[in-house]
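User: Hey, my collaborator sent me this sequence without any context and asked if I could get a structure. I don't really work with proteins. Can you help?
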Amino acid sequence: MRLLQPLRVGPGMAPWAVALSFPHAVATASARELATYAALVSVACALLAAFLQVTLLNRMMRPLRTLATAMSGLAGGNADLSARLEVRGRDELAIIAAGFNGFVAKIRGVLSRVRTSSDSVALASGEIRRGTPTCRPAPSSRPARWRKRRHRWKN
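Assistant: No problem. I've predicted the 3D structure and written it out in structure-token form, which is a compact way to encode the shape of the chain:
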């Protein structure tokens, strides 16, 4: 790279010229260093932003994962009706958690009433079975003379 600059020494004298010559790499070295530094800082900032984003998303999604686990446990064969979700804050997830807790409590109440009713029916059924003798044997076990009488009554 060359740089020429005219120079006037005095009146009536021929003009001079100053020439500077240096390699292109030397002229652009500081710009290259600055570009490299900017690229490294950009990559570091992008990595930091990605790390923070993943961390924050994991933290924000934790209550949703807990809700999904509780719902899967409730929907499974051995429904865990003792499951409770922590209600924290006033956001949508807190409202869903409170609704889930209320839903599970209602299901537990219904099952408790069904068990109580089932026990009452079983107890009453046992009492009826013990207290009621068989009134008449089944038709195939009746004596033949009873069957004949029945036929007489039909005629």
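In plain terms: The mean pLDDT is 83. You can pass these tokens on to your collaborator as they are.
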